[in-house]
Amino acid sequence: RGKKKEKKKYLLPLLLLFKLKMAALLPLAIGFLALISFKALVIGKIALLLSGIIGLKKLLESKKENYEVVAHPHYSHEEHGYGRSLHEAQKLAYSAYQE
Question: Distance between CA atoms of 65 and 74, rounded to whole angstroms?
Fold first, then answer.
């Protein structure tokens, strides 16, 4: 019985110190979380403001769309003899299946 009382004698002050330490650190932790959340809120508002400015700028910009038309000569595959028509390709692909 004497050893149990001795353990309680040393254990109780340690537990009280731990509780006191936690009670002292809790406001610091809450303050740190509040600082981080405030920082995130400010950065979010800045991002929202910048995206709004960019969106308004794009809406109010004059809509000049220039399309460059480049003329390409049209070549027929039959004229030069280096291509096959679709009909020829189908005949070649399915020639083994014909009866």
Answer: 27
- C-alpha to C-alpha distance for 85 and 92, rounded to whole angstroms: 11
User: Which DSSP state fits 78?
Assistant: H
Q: How far is C-alpha 56 from the geometric centre of its chain's CA atoms?
A: 24
Answer whether 0.90 is exceeded by the pTM.
Answer: no
Helix/strand/coil (H/E/C) assignment for every residue in the chain: CHHHHHHHHHHHHHHHHHHHHHHHHHHHHHHHHHHHHHHHHHHHHHHHHHHHHHHHHHHHCCCCCCCCCCCCCCCCHHHHCCCCCHHHHHHHHCCCCCC
Separation of alpha carbons 85 and 78, rounded Å: 8
Q: Lowest-confidence range among 4-8, 16-20, 32-36?
A: 4-8
